Amino acid sequence: MNIPSPYFEILGTVLALLVAIIFYYHHAFQFWARKNIPFIPPRFPLGNTNVVLPRGLTIGLLSKTFYDYFKQRGHKIGGVFLVTEPNLMILDPDYIKNILLKDFHHFVDRGFYFNEKTDPISANLFTIDGDQWRNLRTKLTPTFTSSKMKIMFQTVKNCCNNMLEAIASNTDLDKDLKEFLGRYTVDVVGSCAFGIECNSFKHPDAEFRKMGLRAFHFSFLRSIRAFFIAYLPKLSRQMGLPSNNKDIREFFYKVVMETIQKREETQIKRNDFLQILMDLRKTEILSLDEVAAQVFLFFTAGFETSSSTMAMCLYEIAKEPEYQEKLRQEICEITNGEITYENLFEMKYLDQVFSETLRKYPPGQTLNRRCVKDYTLPGTSTIIEKGTPILISAIGVHRDPEYYPDPEKFDPERFSEENKKLRHPFVYLPFGDGPRNCIGMRFGTMQSKLGIASVVKNFKVSVSPITKRVELDPNTFLLNTIDKIYFRVEKIVK
After folding, report:
1. Mean pLDDT throughout 77-105?
2. Chosen CATH of 28-491 out of 1.10.630.10, 3.40.50.150, 1.20.120.140, 3.30.70.380
3. Helix axes 288-319, 273-283, angle to 10 degrees
4. Which residues, 6 or more positions from 2, have their beta carbon under 8 angstroms from its beta carbon?
5. Backbone phi, psi, residue 385, to 5°
6. Which of 220, 288, 464, 479 is the most exposed place for a label (fewest CB within 10 A)?
7. Ranges 107-116, 246-255, 355-364: which has the least confidence
8. DSSP β-bridge partners for residue 488
9. Residue 430: CB partners within 8 Å, gap ≥ 6?
10. Which letter, b or e, does each residue of 143-166 get, where b requires 16 or more Cβ atoms within 10 Å of its Cβ?
């Protein structure tokens, strides 16, 4: 039987394509072998990210599996493949210090995906690179000084008092405190970013609250899009994929535009983040898109991470009543009834408890950098080429028994002044480090410490028996647990 020639052409094309794909993958997967750098054997077609799809493992927990693999084999660095892109995992604290701080000029960029055309709010201080990042960082740094934090403190405290009233008046035996903490953080961010009083305790369906939850909700389709953006950024850029859903983009853009217009018309000035950006627009070239992008970052960074950190802190001290009581005694002794900005940062044991929470549950589980010019690792002949993505597993380092014995145990004494001096400073990275650390860490710390101290001062908390397993959720890009944590709360009678 004669087969028409077009079929031979199609078959030949398919075979040629398959051969090309095989050769491409074979060559790509030999990258680290050619450089004589230890690596995790990749699998077709997703490299070392094959575990992502069936298990829903995000880059944070994925990087910990990479860290543990190389640590167990005694390596200071190791190569992995995110699909076919080679990434270099850094384990050694001295190398981490060099990359984040000492030789930062070689690793200025994060290399994150953003798309200014289809999703302008994705191009913010966290994602942008090079001179664009450097210039904006310089402009925004004065926003988060101690003097600015003091100005915002009373606003934050008012939101915190609303939370305390809501907890006290709630009649549920078993309380999901993260829900209260989430409303507190959204009220804080709404007030300090936009000058808008959300009061989500009285108005649980407040638009800010709903959009905050929407920003961190990953449907099946959004999860697929997030996978492409995280692991196939070049293809995602060619496809014009947005990082955020359309309704989220439109909501934040609308709020920013309307607030700016109203303030310009009425000549009203407020002590908030948006006002600082508006003032910058008068002296610097700062577009409305850039303003909206930074406000969106302020909102998302301050919303979910702070509420999760506070919830995990309360969970840990609810399990350990002696830690909770020691913290309560310190709060009562130092405050003399009233928490102020000054005495909040005088509480040494609160700082130990907070630091240990961030050690065990770092909000940014992985630090990303991209080499911008060739770099030779000190004391070696290993050259990190320009364009190479760098992975530093904060959660891997934080749970490394070499630095933190019995790492799953919650122990605030790890952060006593004596014990801190015994450790390498770069094995604690909750906010990153160096020039590209988290610009809002002072604000986040103030907000979180105030929330924790206020709850502990006014209530005794214990873990409810209906609480199930407490494990980090692999399906979210930020710190969260699979199941809700329920608390029993007892008002302290003064």
Report:
1. 97
2. 1.10.630.10
3. 150
4. none
5. -80, 150
6. 220
7. 246-255
8. 462
9. 355, 358, 359, 362, 363, 364, 394, 398
10. bbeeebbeebbebbbebbebbbeb
Amino acid letter, residue 81: F
Two tokens at 338?
């009233």
Average pLDDT, the chain: 90
Residue 197: strand, helix, or coil: coil
Q: At what angle do helices 321-335 and 348-360 cross, to 10 degrees?
A: 140
- The domain segmentation of the chain, as residue ranges, is 28-491
Give how far the C-alpha of residue 392 lies from the chain's centroid of Cα atoms, to the nearest Å.
Answer: 14
Across the range 349-353, mean pLDDT stands at: 99
Cα radius of gyration rounded to whole Å, the chain: 24
CB 316 within 8 A of CB 470: no
- What is the separation, in whole angstroms, between the first and last Cα of the chain? 96
b/e 328-354 (16+ beta carbons within 10 angstroms → b): bebbeebbeeebebeebbebebbbbbb
Residues in Cβ contact with 456 at an 8 Å cutoff, skipping those fewer than 6 apart: 314, 317, 324, 327, 328, 331
- Cα 459 to Cα 490: distance, rounded to the nearest angstrom: 5
Biggest CA–CA distance in the chain, Å, is 97
160 annotated ligand binder: no
For 389-443, what is each residue's pLDDT tens digit?
Answer: 999 999 999 999 999 999 999 999 999 999 999 999 999 999 999 999 999 999 9
